[in-house]
Amino acid sequence: MPDPIEDLRTHLAPIEDLKAAATVLRWDQETYMPDGGAEARAQQLSTLQSTAHERFVAEETGTLLDRAADAVGDAAPLDTDAALVRVTRRDYERAVRVPSSLVAELSKAKSQAQQAWTQARQHDDFSRFAPHLERLVDLSVEKAEAIGYADAPYDALLTAYEPGRTTAEVASLFGTLRDDLVPLVDAIGDALPIDDTILRGTYPQSDQRAFGRSVIADFGYDFDRGRQDVSAHPFTMSFAPNDVRLTTRYDEDNVASALFSTIHEAGHGLYEQGIDPSLARTPLGDGTALSTHESQARLWENHIGRSRPFWRHYLPALRDRFPSALGDAALEPFYRAINRVTPSLIRVEADEVTYHLHVMLRFELGRGLIDGTLSVNDLPERWNEAMDTYLGVVPETDANGVLQDVHWSQGAFGYFPTYTLGTLTAAQLMEAIQDDLPSLSEQVANGRFDPLLDWLRSHVHRHGRILTAPDLLERATGAELSADPWLRYAENKFGALYDLA
Amino acid sequence: MPDPIEDLRTHLAPIEDLKAAATVLRWDQETYMPDGGAEARAQQLSTLQSTAHERFVAEETGTLLDRAADAVGDAAPLDTDAALVRVTRRDYERAVRVPSSLVAELSKAKSQAQQAWTQARQHDDFSRFAPHLERLVDLSVEKAEAIGYADAPYDALLTAYEPGRTTAEVASLFGTLRDDLVPLVDAIGDALPIDDTILRGTYPQSDQRAFGRSVIADFGYDFDRGRQDVSAHPFTMSFAPNDVRLTTRYDEDNVASALFSTIHEAGHGLYEQGIDPSLARTPLGDGTALSTHESQARLWENHIGRSRPFWRHYLPALRDRFPSALGDAALEPFYRAINRVTPSLIRVEADEVTYHLHVMLRFELGRGLIDGTLSVNDLPERWNEAMDTYLGVVPETDANGVLQDVHWSQGAFGYFPTYTLGTLTAAQLMEAIQDDLPSLSEQVANGRFDPLLDWLRSHVHRHGRILTAPDLLERATGAELSADPWLRYAENKFGALYDLA
């Protein structure tokens, strides 16, 4: 008897294998690959990606989807088979609309732009990057036109990362956020600064590694189904729910850097390890949106890892691990130090408050490039103006300004806002969690994380891509995404820390 | 203007990429993959292999080969384009002859046999493995019939590893070898044993690693185009001529184990790193036969690494690295210890002399299974009889006897003889090298390896698969493969070491 769902799964599974294989190759590229391997690796990745893409955009996928759609009919939102058809259809429609000639042009332009960006940043010379960025903007607009959108071309790019969200919605959320955030940052700037010299000292990498591993193992990150390595930029990659890998980097002069990056990546990793194993080898077996992914990272990093109860439990162990640097560290100064807020030039070094001003700036400028209201040539000046307005600091060089991020050179327009959407999502989930788990603070102060992890597994992780980010949040919290929970969290926490009125 | 060679290359390059990607996944599986990743990895590898296979056996390959053959005509043996057509045709004919149903059956049977072998070895119970081995023998014979052969089905299996060689030729070489080797081993057994306790002591892994790396870097192994990691069984894998990776394992109680394994694998690695880069992403871009590969490993391991001139140069550095264990080690006892010969039960622990008796035994028994003169049920008894005849030792358990190697459970009939063919090849190359480089010993004693590496690069490495192993050897040494050079080497070296008449 024919089983159209099974036929669809059988068709999609090897495509997922090819994508997973590409992820293994990228993981290796960032961790262990010798320099000499770069050229061959680029070719291998290109072949894997194009092989997976060709199989996916084949007519057969459409035919199998049509048959499977008839078989599932109107099913409940959490029905896996219906979700498989729904999500695969969404991916398929998007993929077939972009002509393969444009895919190839974009791929070539990105590769050239990344090389130009590296050079431009190294020589602090935006003009080397400008023509490549212009080309990427043009091709991205072309791609957006091919995909189609209701309101603005930026919508079509945003939905690659955030299915179900619009540019207007993001702009509105960011507007609310900005109205409260800029005054909060100003007030913190006028308050007595926090001293964080306690974090500086000598912290051998092997001890940092052991401590970080013990913390995330306590959270529930499973080292039998993952590992942690070192890379230039921390990341998480999943090859399967049972093989989810983290990386970090170590600063032996600062105890906080690798630890919070480890906790952050473990948040991503716990999400991937928690996806229902039955979704493996299907398009449902990933995190549903970048914002949902980032919410898991930020929830563990900031709401747990930068909280007082957490350090009530872990500071003694940290002191034991680093007796000469931290032997006499007390809870309150340590807690204050890891929550210091100070405007700075570089996004990836920003604290959890000012970070969102960096993101907003990038969202506004990126959107302007795509909708044609901002020209590439005006970008550096507009960047510096916005830095001054939002953060009160202005970079002296473009290398520390508009050239600091790799993302635009990768053509990733629509990507930056997901960081802040993730933070808002984390705070909104956290309010729901605190309602459901009134003893959470006490549990965290006792090093017990299983109630929290169970909640996240059940409301977020296990669903994979069955629900879109908006649907998932609505089911988990009963409300649409709002900036208010995070603003309440930030105003409470940092109001107290900085003794604000 | 159509270019049939270029069309063929364009068709083959992504197939090579897929195979290289599979190699990256296997490397990861043996080095860093967490246990949980095994199931998904098997699926990913299966998809990569079947995708590469389907593309290769497609009719298009045959059409492109026909057109390319017309274009190259009768070219010189070293002409790359002609070799591309010749070697790809050979691979293609072999691949299309095996029905995909048989490929799938073999793949399934191997997977089941490997699990059964693991269990059988663990419980020292050959009967658990026997039915699986029978099935693999039957399927291998079926495969041999599909491929075709001139003389014996074993020929068809052997040529997977050794194009251009026959079972009869191997049997004849091994006959010559056995006639001299068994008396040599007997004579050594009657001589005063060599004391190798000097090799035992405490040798921290990090120091062993540093020393091994320095030695193979001196040889010319390029760490910018490779790396060395740890795995349960040492191996070398190439993803591209510029990304060739070695592994080893460390025994902290023995200074010789990891060092000679490192040198051995570096021999393989130098071969792969030395292949003409223009052959990358073609079927020519690998070592030409397993015996040629093994010859490079054995040449560096035994002819160089276990020689007096080598230790004249390196023993002082080794003493400095391990002052407490080796501070007063003198050259002669050390040289004797690393060349100790003693019959033993386990092939992978055997010395360079008795090793070949282990190989012969496997060749003879494996060939018997395939030509039907030996039944699986009689195998353990025949194994033990042969051990007694050849080595004078008999295993007390099948786990230490017929079940010790994984290879037959992988259906790798025809594989074992390549080890000894490689050793014979190494000795024959070495006589030619000594003719061309009369100062080789002096160079080695001064830590200078570039003349040797240049010779190997020029006569062996750079050709990739352009020449078959017999053609390569004939061009490099002016003679067909013979057992005599190795017998001369062994009788000289071990005659002196054991003071034989």
From TrEMBL, chains A, B:
Any Gene Ontology biological process: proteolysis
Region forming the signal peptide: none
Binding site for Zn(2+): 264, 268, 294
Cofactor: binding details: Binds 1 zinc ion per subunit.
InterPro entries, per database record: Peptidase_M32_Taq
Pfam families noted in UniProt: Peptidase_M32
EC code: 3.4.17.19
MF term (GO), any: metal ion binding
UniProt keyword annotations, A-Z: Carboxypeptidase, Hydrolase, Metal-binding, Metalloprotease, Protease, Zinc
Catalyzed reactions: Release of a C-terminal amino acid with broad specificity, except for -Pro
Cofactor dependency: Zn(2+)
Cited CDD domains: M32_Taq
Gene3D superfamilies found in the cross-reference section: 1.10.1370.30
List of catalytic residues: 265 (proton donor/acceptor)
Family classification: Belongs to the peptidase M32 family.
Function: Broad specificity carboxypetidase that releases amino acids sequentially from the C-terminus, including neutral, aromatic, polar and basic residues.
Protein name as annotated: Metal-dependent carboxypeptidase
Source organism of the structure: Salinibacter ruber
